[in-house]
Specification:
The protein starts with a strand and ends in a 5-residue tail after the last helix. Helices cover about 40% and strands about 15% of the residues. The strands form 3 sheets. Strands 3-4-5-8-9-10-11 form a 7-stranded parallel sheet, covered by helices on one side. It is globular. The model has no long low-confidence stretch (mean pLDDT about 95). By secondary structure, the protein is of the alpha/beta class.
């Protein structure tokens, strides 16, 4: 597996692993043994970058990740996140990035993961009630104490990134980015990453599974699958967005690849400091995703994709209105 550098020297595999879906958000819940086998299979295949968060569960995902990766701790980079308001194991409305809460989350995450240092600690969403300078200062203190190694932000606005970076250098920004979610190209995030030397970690790089070609307008989502609540996954939206999957399937046939591999290869081709983190609960999908690093898209391919994308209008917001209000702040 090729390696890439995020920010000020955090080396990771060119494709990471988003762990959320192991037991959260998509309705499926792997056991500790199943999760462990899959995550260790990822390590065996060269993945060194694993992403979790306290809110996934809450808390249970960190436990699965810690249990699986503890035997190979010296080979991997573990990222987790703070910033939601969780009381007695239940997520509450609103956000919480007060400095004392950040410290408490760090301590608890270290315990659940069974590690001595969090490699990359993201603010999960920007808290409008706490100045970003205070947030960066709190993480800076944890870095000075050796409890955290790198600082990250998820779904911030460009100005927020600059203000945070002035207090504590930001290593990575984790935003949604894929062929059907391209806001980072125009909202200042690409530019600030270039300007300040920050890495970008796209989550949902396969459009929550839609870009794999495995869904149709009549796809039914099971209990606990949050895609059933997303505007982009209504039957009408999926029918209209099929044009993007059709494009991927045409290119995949030319490249002797799969639509998922083309979608990931396209992301990797955008900038050398981008590291997508697709997730899966299946070994064959893991292997398919990782093979995307070997799919070469030429300048001509990329130009052709850009021209085709200009003719496709994506139907539906990526989140319902209340969740859209907490991104890009």
């Amino acid at each position: 597996m090729q390696k890439r550098i995020l920010g000020n020297g955090l080396e990771v595999s060119a494709i990471g692993y988003g762990c959320m879906g192991l037991d959260f958000a998509y309705g499926s819940k792997l056991s500790t043994a199943e999760s462990g086998a899959l995550l260790r299979a990822a390590v065996d295949r060269g993945v060194t970058f694993f992403d979790t968060a306290e809110v996934y569960g809450p808390f249970t995902n960190e436990g699965l990740v810690g249990e699986a990766l503890r035997p190979v701790r010296d080979q991997v980079v573990i990222a987790t996140k703070f910033g939601f308001n969780i009381v007695d194991g239940v997520q509450q409305p609103g956000l919480n990035s007060r400095p004392e809460h950040i410290r408490a989350v760090a301590e608890a995450s270290l315990q659940r993961l069974g590690i001595e240092q969090i490699d990359l600690f993201y603010q999960h969403r920007v808290d409008p009630d706490v100045a970003i300078e205070e947030v960066a200062g709190a993480v800076k203190a944890l870095i000075a104490e050796g409890k955290v190694k790198h600082f990250g932000l998820s779904e911030p606005g460009a100005d927020t990134v600059r203000r945070a970076h002035a207090v504590q250098p930001v290593t990575a920004i984790q935003n949604e980015y894929s062929l059907w979610t391209r806001g980072v190209e125009t909202n200042g995030i690409f530019a600030v990453c270039e300007e300040l030397g920050i890495g970008l970690v796209p989550y949902s790089p396969l459009g929550r599974g839609f870009l794999t070609g495995a869904m149709r307008a009549d796809t039914a989502f099971g209990d606990g699958d949050f895609r059933s609540k997303l505007p982009r996954f209504t039957p009408d939206a999926m029918a209209k967005n099929q044009a993007l999957v059709d494009l991927l399937q045409r290119i995949a046939a030319e490249k002797q690849a799969t639509p998922a591999q083309v979608a990931l290869a396209w992301i990797l081709a955008q900038r050398p400091w981008i590291v997508p983190i697709p997730g899966t609960t299946k070994l064959h999908r893991l292997e398919e995703n990782l093979a995307a690093a070997k799919v070469a898209l030429t300048a001509g391919d990329l130009a052709g994709i850009a021209a085709a994308l200009a003719e496709i209008d994506i139907e539906g917001e990526r989140y319902p209105a209340p969740l859209m209000q907490v991104v890009g702040r």
